[in-house]
Each structure stands twice: as structure tokens, then as C-alpha cells.
Amino acid sequence: GSGGADKPPAAAGTSRPAEMTDVGVAASAIAGVANLFLAQESDLFKAENLNVEPDFVKFTPDIVAAVVGGSDAFGHINTATLLQALEANVPIQIVSPGYVGEAAESGIYVAKGSTITSIRDLEGKRIGVAGLKNIQQIAIMATAGEAGADPTKFEFVEIAVPTMVTAVERGQVDAVALPEPFVTLAGGQLTEVVDNMYEGFGSHPLITYYITSDRYAADHPEVVRAFGNAMVEAQDLAQQNPDRVRKAVAGYTEIPEDVVGRMALPSWTTNLQPATLERQAEFLVEYGFLKQMPADLDKLFASAQGQQ
Amino acid sequence: MTYGSGPTAVEAIRDVSFSIRPGEFVCIVGPSGCGKTTLLKSIAGLLRPTHGTALIQGRVVDGPPEQLALVFQEYTRSLLPWLTVRRNVELPLKARREKRDECASRTVDALHAVGLSGFEDKYPWQLSGGMQQRAAIARAIAYRPAVLLMDEPFASVDAQTRADLEDLLLRVQQETGVTVVFVTHDIDEAVYLGHRVIVLSGRPTVVRETVDVPMGWPRDQVATKADPRFVELRTHVLRQIHRERTEHPPQTH
Amino acid sequence: MTYGSGPTAVEAIRDVSFSIRPGEFVCIVGPSGCGKTTLLKSIAGLLRPTHGTALIQGRVVDGPPEQLALVFQEYTRSLLPWLTVRRNVELPLKARREKRDECASRTVDALHAVGLSGFEDKYPWQLSGGMQQRAAIARAIAYRPAVLLMDEPFASVDAQTRADLEDLLLRVQQETGVTVVFVTHDIDEAVYLGHRVIVLSGRPTVVRETVDVPMGWPRDQVATKADPRFVELRTHVLRQIHRERTEHPPQTH
Amino acid sequence: MLLLTAMWEAASRFGVVPARDFPPATVILKTFLEDVQTSSLLNSVKESLSAWALGLAIVTVTAVPIGLAVGSLRVLDRATQLLIELVRPIPTVALLPLLILLYGTGLQLALVLVVLAAFWPLLIQTIYGVRDVDPVTLDTGRSYGLGGVRQYWHIVIPSSLPYVATGMRLAATIALVVAIAASLIAGGSGLGAAISNAAGSGASDLMYARILVAGLLGLAVTTVFLRLERRLLRWHHSHREVPA
Amino acid sequence: MTRALSRFALPLALPVTMAVVWWFASSGSTSVYYPPLRDDVRAFADAWLFDQVDSDLVPSMIRFATGFGIAVVLGITMGTALGISARARRALSPVTEFFRAMPIAALVPAGLIMLGAGARMEAALIAFGSTWPILLSTTDGVRATDPAMVEMGRSYGLSRAARVRRVIIPSALPQVFAGLRIALALALQVMIIANMLSGTNGLGYVVLEAQRTFNIPGMWAGILALALLGLTVNLVFVAVEHRVLAWHRGWRAAELRND
Ligand SMILES: Nc1ncnc2c1ncn2[C@@H]1O[C@H](COP(=O)(O)OP(=O)(O)OP(=O)(O)O)[C@@H](O)[C@H]1O
Ligand SMILES: Nc1ncnc2c1ncn2[C@@H]1O[C@H](COP(=O)(O)OP(=O)(O)OP(=O)(O)O)[C@@H](O)[C@H]1O
Ligand SMILES: [Mg+2]
Ligand SMILES: [Mg+2]
């Protein structure tokens, strides 16, 4: 495969499971996992002797539990969840990179005619996010801090994504971190005040990873390697074929056809971005969502597939 | 009056026509299962007859008339188990918005009259069968109804208490002029108490005979029952019932 | 035997000692609320006496003895509303694993004997009060118990039916030699039926007198009741009760 | 029902509620009619229903006997009282990660959730039902020598049947709600996942169409149970025909 | 003495045994998800004695009380109406049965839009979730009223309202209490779900946040707090029931049971 450039060739792809293996991947049903479907369609998994079954789970701690408990071999979670799980000594490790969210889910929106025009105006305001102490909140705080605002003065409230547009229109919150497809669905009824809330993490930051449990990795190293290899290939495949991504998304979600055609897509990278993760960890510590910096982040990437 | 429909329907009463004057004391006797309870419930407006009508003072009964009290054959189930005896007796009075003092004193009097003083604060299920029956009677008496329907009200009390209660009832009837319809299986009791005794046949039920009791008032357990007219009447009624039995042996439906 | 404790406790029975021979027919009379039902339930092992013991054939009763049948004063509540009359009568037989045919025929016979033929497939709540009571009697008879306890079993039936049931009971007793303890308020009935009549006092309850009935068997409604010994005995018992009444007027607890 | 639908339609059409979030009833109905013909929806309904049926069966064979025992034996009642009351309010959602750890995210999890939720209503109703058995009825059984198992079979169970029936109907719907919610929250491929997928895709008409399916399933379930109950409790005065 | 023993020691025996077993079985645990009970208890002491009482427990309790209160009133009044009138039952029960099967989690978005996030929404959800058992039990309890008692009320001229208040409702009370008992635990559960899907504070929120941030002892501590809260509420409830249904216990056990 194209991944694992820095790895010895032995690790990269020669050893795959001897026979066809079924693996479950716990993930949320979002556009960011479209590459799973592309890889399955294009027989990338088959080539590694894998048969992948996506298993849609709504909440991230449940994804982690499904992986640790062994009902799914792999899981797809965001960096904040990953770091918090690691701090709690949850026995998981990174397998391969996930996606970059900046195009598809990075906008902060306010109601038409709102006095808020920049991220700094959000001080003292209520901002709706999908989950508290999670990735969006941290990203917004980081980006705001970089822009010179005082993020500790932001008030975050958790709010179900499908209700975000109405909530901000009705003034239940002042701003929302709205992901796709709801941006497209809103059809310009809201005003965008922040284009990329992940700016604070650096440019094109990776915000999710595929993980597995330590136990699974120890018991089935060949499956883990094979999955990682296929996924790294799938990253490129997805990044280069937006039309196929849209088709896949239309298949496993209920997003109406015309919206799928117009909505912004996330982007995929084969780069594991250890530095970005470290940076995110620093922010988490700074805002009190982690007690201390994780000891050896580097080790986390040691057996992962992708470019370091 | 027919219960149910189709092949298993039971015709409880066929043709029972009689009228009762205000202030009259009418006793009803008849074989078990002939429809006495059904009849009382129809008069009370608790059942709607399938044929015919019940009239009270010329008006068709289509719901329980006012100022009516009913002592049920199933006295146990008609006492509310969550109320003490006192509250059970008071309940209809209170619902009628009697004054509180009035309620209390009438209740005490009625319970005393039936020999339940001292049991006011017991629950019905703490009483013996006969005591429960007397509690139900006390409730009816305390209510001072215009029409009093009683369904075998003395079935569970001993002979002595029964006599006392009979006399109590007669006294109340004399004093208040209440109209009483009284179902009993005791022919002596029927003749002793009533202005009239209505004898019902077995099912399909019709009025077999109406017997006027020409004896005067007040009546007395010893004197009245020794009265030759009394003896003659009770023998007559008994003979009627006996003949009924032989003419129409107890039949299945 | 005391219900409850503390100041509101009711001493239902104080000192009631008597013994019953196998095959004997004993009638118990006593004022309402004196503890007759309590006594029967103690014999049946349904209540555990607070003082004293009940013995059956020398063995202490600490649970319902075998081959015992009880006709409850609250017959309505003792019939199972989810079973038809037939099934109600059959239930104890089936539970004792009688043969199916045997169950069926005994049930039919017993229901016929109490005059309920044709009502086998009705539910108890589709019957009149007296019919329910007869169903409960049928259940006891079909069971062919060794000991039969009956608590005012004929209270809700008419005079004619009552006489028939009395004779039925006597016949059954003669034929099967069952021991019967029979509570009634009807003194005539007690003297007519029993080998012995036990007269209880008012509460605190003691045995006031035990009256032997020296008349022979079989008995007959007309002949026996016309027997001068019968008349004398019943007058004697009545006088006892009357005297009891005046010596110990109905008291509160 | 019609009235409610009409009100909904009007509210949505005239903008009392945002049509984006509350599409008009007619639109939902149209989507519903299209959606119920798809095999994927039928499959998800089937999956939820199998979790429901299996879970309810397990609950029935456990809760009723335990309820009978606890309701009639004071020692057992005392011994389990505190424990039951400690365990009962623990919400299964709070334990979700643990349950997923143990049972994964599939049918087994849904089953566990259904059992945990539907067990209590049936248990409590059964206990109360046993406590409401008429002592005269019990004594009748005892005096005729019906002891042990027979006493339960012939007296206690039929007597408490009205309560148990209420408990069954409660348990049946709660089980259905949970069978659906399980896949809504924890993933899988049941009806809940279908609802959640529609919600997450911003297809609110589809979401309501599928909620409608849930409601109709509930209606069907209770109707069936009511029928059954009417047969079984013919004798009980709450089901008797009123004399003509 | 023995009576006191069976009254107090017996109920405690099982939970205490289980706690002891748990304590020792888990004491050496290194699993993240099953931390030693010691840690859970410490986390419980830290959080709930009495740090988060003001910020989370009290708001939860208020929402709970409001929601449950609404459910009681709605459930009993509607249940009585449905129980008394066959016509009401025919007209309304399709609607109630339909809504009863709504997965509450799916309704949250709609609720959020109409009521916004926060206390009002949560109270409404709690009410919605816990009304059904009360409604159903009340309906069935009312229908099961002994017809002899109702006839008594009718013949003595009790008005319809008086019959409902003085005869039908008291007679349905044992069933109603069974429903309330079920609803009570259900309300606590819905409180957590509501918290989970719309919350910003409250007991359920704390548990879920602990869960999300993999603070597993914190999660167990919250669950412990919930269990104790549930127990307390239930004990209060049982005490009330014990008083209100004293007659029922006597009636249904109207015998000398020597124990
Ligand atoms: N709910 C019912 N359903 C069907 N049939 C009934 C019902 N209630 C009474 N019956 C029938 O109606 C007839 C008359 O019953 P009713 O109770 O009026 O008799 P009764 O004269 O009061 O008898 P008793 O002296 O035994 O009390 C009986 O044959 C009984 O079987
Ligand atoms: N469950 C109970 N709790 C308290 N006291 C009771 C209870 N049952 C009966 N008693 C009392 O015990 C006494 C005897 O009752 P019992 O039922 O044995 O009388 P009885 O002789 O059968 O009367 P009756 O002829 O009226 O049926 C009564 O005074 C009654 O008040
Ligand atoms: Mg009658
Ligand atoms: Mg008695």
C-alpha cells in the first residue's frame, strides 16, 4: 500500500490474515466514515482478507466500550475522546488516521441579524455544541484563544444537532457549531461567523482516529495491520473520489439526494499527525479537561499505520 | 327482566306487577333465585328492566330515586372496607350535606339501635358476619330514607337479635312513615312485619298471590304471633308456597 | 382467641371446651358476634388460637386437617369467580386427584341435590345469593369429607329449600357417617339436626350449656317437629338464650 | 386522533411550529407510506420486534414467579425489599458502556435492556396482585386441602390475574419502547437506529414517519394484549357484560 | 426482638452481603470499567458529600418532583376518566396507547424545539415518561371496583362526583399505588435520559459526563447516588402507602397471622 512509508516493509502488508476474517467497526453514521464503504466497494478489505461490517453507535464512550469489550474489533473516535480514554488507562491504541473536519463541520453560525460578527463577540454568549468537553468545544476554545478572546467566558451548552438551527433562530442559544448536512439544509438561513473553528489546532488538523483495543492488537496483530493498511489506502481513495463519497453517504444515511450533492465533505489524510494530537492534548490540559499531558504520546503511534 | 342473551339467557322476572302506596310496608317472599333481588334492584333503578317499567309515585324509574336506601343481600360487599363502621354509616349523610353534628348523632343512635355501640371505630372486616349486616342496617336507618328496600336484611343474625331488629324496624316505620319493601325467606317475619305480603312464584316469575295482613299496629312479638289471624295467615302463605313447589318443581332454565 | 392487641383488642372466645365424637352431628348456636365463625376457623386450622388448642382425634390442629370441608358464612367470597359452578365444585376433587368420571358424576349429583341442575355452566356471580350458597354446599357435599364444618349454610335460602337441604344433609350424614359441626341461628334447625346443641354465651364467650337431643333417627320435618320432646327442647334452648340476654345484655368490648 | 392530525397539519402549514422541524402531517404520511414499503425498514422493525418478543418472554417467566413468591412470603419480601428498591431506579442508560462492554451492541444488548426495563413493572404489579387476594378465597383453598403449588395455581394466580394483566400490558409497551430505543442510542439495526439515522440526516419527515411506525406498533401490541386479557378475564367484573 | 430483627436486619442482609462481596472481589481489580469499590466510594464521598449537592442533586430533585407531580395528577385524573367512561376509553385509548409506545429518546428533539433545553423540558419528559403506568393502573383499578360498592353509592344518592371521590378512587387505590411505584422508578430513569439528551447539569448529566470522560469511579459514584436517591424516595413513598393503605392490609389479611 501507499501507507507505512517509514515502516519496514515486513510490517506493511505482507502478513495478512490467512483466511477471510469478519471485523466490526464501531462508528457514528457520519460522512467522515464514507471511506469505510469505499474500501469495501473497491475490495481493499478483501485484498487484505477482511470483511468489514460497520456498526453504527451514537455515543463515543459506547464506541470505546464496544471495542474494549471486543464486540467490535475497531472503532472510530475523535481525538478528545481518545485522549480522555487514554488518561483513564482505557487499554486502546491507534490503528490509522480518520478525517479532517474543517470543511464539513467547522462553521459557527448565528441567527440572521445577530450582533455577533466574530469569534470574539462570543464572550458571555451561549454556544450550542454537540457534546460538552468534547472536540468542538475544545476546538472553539483553542481557536478563540489564538484569536485573543477569553474562551473561559464562553458558555457552552449541549444541544442535539438536528435541533441546532431552530434553537439558534429562536434564541435558545446565541451560536451553534453546526456540522453538515445541516449547514446545507439550513440553506443560508443562518449567518456564518467562524469559517474554521479548528484553526487553533493548526492547518488541516486530523480530528479522528481508528482505534483497537490493546488486547485485540496483541491477539490479532495481522488483522490490525491488514485493516490499517486497507484504511490508509481508503484515505486516498476517498480524498480523490468525492463523487463516490457522496454516493456512499447517500447509501448509509438518509440525507436527501440533493443535499448530499451540495454539502461540504470532510477530507482524508494518510498522515497520522502526532504533533496535532500533542497540541490538542495541550489545550485539553490548559482548559482542565485532562489532568496532565499524556506521558508518551509517541508510543501511541508506534504500531499505527500511516505517515508519522 | 332478562340477563344475558341467546341460548344461555336467564329470564329472571316475567310478569310482576304490583303497586305500593306511600308509607306502606310490603314484604316479598319467593323461592331462592326467583328474582327478588333483581326486582329490588329494578325498583332502586340500579338495573334497567328489559321489559316493563318500575314506577315510583307515578314516575318511571330510570336511575336511583332520591331518598332511597337499600340494604343489600351482599352486605359484606356493600360496606366500604377503607372506612370504619362509623364512617360507613355517615357516608351517605355527608354526601347529602347533612350538618356535621346531625351526622354524628344520627350515626351514634343508629349504631346503638342495632347493638353496635363500641364498634364504631372498627373496620367492617373486623366484624362478624351478623355485625356487618347490622352495620348495613344502621346505615340505612341513619339515612332516614323515604323508601327503604331491604334484601334479606336479618339473614345472618341470631333469633333474639332478629326479633329486636324487627321491632326496631317497625318502630322506625311507624315514626317516619317510610315506605318499606322487605324481602325475606322467613314467612313469620313477613306476616309479622308487613301490611301486605307478596308471594312470588318460581321462574318464570309471576306474582302468585298478594296477601293482605289485616292485623293492627303496633305489633308485638308475643301477642301478634299468638293472634289466630297471624297463625292462619302464615299457614296460608306456607301452603301457597308448598303448592307452588309441587305444581312447579324447581326447574332448570 | 384474641383479635389484635392493645386497647382495641377483641377477645373473641374466652373458654370454649367441648369435644366431638367421630360421626357426631353438633350444632352451635349463640348470639351474633360471639365467636362461632372464629371457632370454626380454629377447628379448621385456618386460625391459630392465641390460647388453648383445637384437637381432632387427639391431634393438635395446626393447619387445615385432611378431608375437611368448610362452608363459609361468606359464601359469595369463597366461590372462585373465575370458575363456573361446575368447576368450583370439582376443584377440590380434582386437587385430590379423584378420577375424572368420578369428579364429574359426583359434581352433577351434588348440584342436582341442591337444586342447581341447569346452572352448572354459569359463573357464581350469575347466580342469586341463595343459589351461590347452595353451590358452596354442593361443593362440600361432593367432596365427601370426614369432617364437615358449616357456618350458617342455609341463611339465604327460602323456607322450603331450607327444609329440603336439612334433609339432604341428614341423609348424607347417615350414609357417610361424616362428623358435622353446624353453626346456625335457627334454634329449630339446631334441635332438628343435631345429636347435640352447644349454646354459647355472648362475649367473653363460654359454653353456656350443652343440650343433648335424645330423639332418634331418621328425623322427619313433620313428625320430628311435632314430637313433644322437640318442642320442649327448643323451648328450653330459647329460654336459655333469652336468659343469657337479660343476664348479659349485649355489651361493648 | 383525526383531530390531532388536523391540528398538527395546520400548525405546520401556518408556521405555528417550524415546518423544517415539524413537517405537515400529510407530508409525514406520504413519507410513511413510501418508507413502510422498503425492505430496510421492515428489517429494522423485525429486529426490534424480535428483541421485544424474546425479552418479554424472559420477563414473563421470571417476573411472575418471583412476584408470586415475594408477594406471598413475608420473609422474602423483607429480604429483597431494599435490594429491589436500590436496583430499580438505576437507569440502564447510565450503565450503557458497561453493558456494551459485556454484551456488545447487537441483539443481545437490546435483549438485556428490554429485560432490565420490563421486569420491574410486571414484578411490582404481580406483588400487589398477590397482596390483593381475598383471604376468604385463600382460606377456601386451604380448608379444602389445596396447598403448595396447587394453591398458587388454582387460587393465587387467577386472583391476581387482573393485576398481572395490567403489568403485562405495561411491560409489553415498555419493552417495545426500550427495544426501539436500544438501537436508537446504542446502535445496531433496529427501528431506533432507523429513527436516529433519519434525525441525524436532517430528514425530519422520515424521522416522524418512523416514530409513527413505533406508535402504531405500540397500538398493535396493546390491542392484542387487550384482546387476550378480555378472554382471560371474562369472569372478572371489569370485563363482564352489563346486564341488559 | 425477633420482630425487630426481621423488620430491620432482614432487609439489610442482602444488600450488605452484596456490597461486602463486591468490595472484596473488586479490591484488586485493575479493569478500568470495574474499579475497586473503594475508589467508587471515595469518589462518591468526594462528589456527593456535599460538593455537587447544590449544583446537581437539588436541581435534579426539583425537576423530578415537578415532572412526577404532573404525572401523578395527569395519570390519576385521566386514568379515572378512562376507567369510568367506556366512551372516553373508546375515544382516547388509541391516542394514549399510541403515545405510550413512543420511544422517549426519539421525542427529545421535538421537545427541545418546543420547550428549549433545560429544566422545563426535562420536567416535561419525566412527566411524559411516568404518566403511563399511573394512567394504566388507575384505569384498570377503577374498572375493577366491586360493582356492589358502586351500586351502594348509586342507591344512596351519591352524586357521580361523590361516587368517584368516595367509592371508586379509594377502591382503586391499591392498583394506583402499584402504578405509582412503577412510575417512580421510571421517572428517575427518564430524568437520566432527559439529562443525557438535553442536560447541562443534574445527577444524570454528572453520570454521563463521567462516563464520557472515562471517569469510571465517578460514574459508579453517580450511580450509587442515584440508587440511594431512588431508595430514599421509595422509602418515603412506602411510608405514605403504608398509612394510606393500612385498611387494605388489614382487609386482605383479616386473620390472625402469628408472625
Ligand atoms: N348477573 C347476572 N347474570 C346472569 N344471570 C343472573 C345475574 N344475576 C342474577 N341472575 C339470575 O337471575 C335470577 C334471579 O336472581 P335474583 O338474585 O334476583 O334471585 P333472588 O330471588 O334474589 O334469589 P335469592 O333468594 O337466592 O337471593 C337467578 O336465576 C339468577 O341466576
Ligand atoms: N379480623 C378481625 N379483627 C378483629 N376482630 C375480629 C376479626 N374477626 C372477628 N372479630 C371479632 O371477633 C368476634 C367474633 O367474631 P365471629 O365472626 O367469630 O362471630 P360469629 O359468632 O361468627 O358472629 P355472627 O353470628 O355474626 O357471624 C366479633 O366480636 C368480631 O368483632
Ligand atoms: Mg337475592
Ligand atoms: Mg359468623
Automatic annotation (TrEMBL), chains B, C:
Stored SUPFAM superfamilies: P-loop containing nucleoside triphosphate hydrolases (SSF52540)
Keywords for the protein's UniProt record, in alphabetical order: ATP-binding, Nucleotide-binding, Transport
Claim: Nucleotide-binding is one of the keywords in the record: yes
UniProt cross-references to Pfam families, sorted A to Z: ABC_tran
Domain ABC transporter: start-end pairs: 1-227
SMART domains linked: AAA
InterPro entries, per database record: AAA+_ATPase, ABC_transporter-like_ATP-bd, ABC_transporter-like_CS, ABC_transporter_ATP-bind, P-loop_NTPase
Molecular-function GO terms, alphabetical: ATP binding
Protein name: ABC transporter ATP-binding protein
Naturally occurring in which organism (per UniProt): Pseudonocardia xishanensis
PROSITE patterns, per the entry: ABC_TRANSPORTER_1 (PS00211), ABC_TRANSPORTER_2 (PS50893)
Keyword Nucleotide-binding in annotation: yes
CDD domains according to UniProt: ABC_NrtD_SsuB_transporters (cd03293)
UniProtKB/TrEMBL annotation, chain D:
Compartment list: Cell membrane
Segments passing through the bilayer: 49-70, 82-103, 109-130, 170-195, 207-228
UniProt KW Transport keyword: yes
Segment forming the signal sequence: none
Family, similarity comment: Belongs to the binding-protein-dependent transport system permease family.
PANTHER family (alphabetical): ALIPHATIC SULFONATES TRANSPORT PERMEASE PROTEIN SSUC-RELATED, ALKANE SULFONATE ABC TRANSPORTER-RELATED, MEMBRANE SUBUNIT
Protein's name according to its UniProt entry: ABC transporter permease
Organism: Pseudonocardia xishanensis
TrEMBL record, chain E:
Keywords tagged on the record: Cell membrane, Membrane, Transmembrane, Transmembrane helix, Transport
Keyword Transport attributed: yes
Segments passing through the bilayer: 7-25, 64-86, 98-117, 176-198, 218-240
Top-level lineage group: Bacteria
Membrane topology recorded in Swiss-Prot or TrEMBL: Multi-pass membrane protein
Signal peptide location: none
Subcellular location: Cell membrane
Domain ABC transmembrane type-1 as annotated: residue spans: 57-241
This protein's record includes keyword Transmembrane: yes
A matching Pfam family: BPD_transp_1
UniProt xrefs under Gene3D superfamilies: MetI-like
Family under the similarity heading: Belongs to the binding-protein-dependent transport system permease family.
Protein name stated in the entry: ABC transporter permease
Organism: Pseudonocardia xishanensis
